[in-house]
Amino acid sequence: MASMNTVSLLAGIVVVGFAAFLIGLAIVCACDRTRAERFLRAFASSARTHYAEQVLRLVVGVSIARSSEFMWLSEAFRIFGWVVVGSTLVLLVIPWRWHHAFAARVMPPVYRRLGLFALASATLGVCVLLAVFRGVIGGV
Question: How far apart are alpha carbons 31 and 18 in whole angstroms?
Answer without folding.
Answer: 20
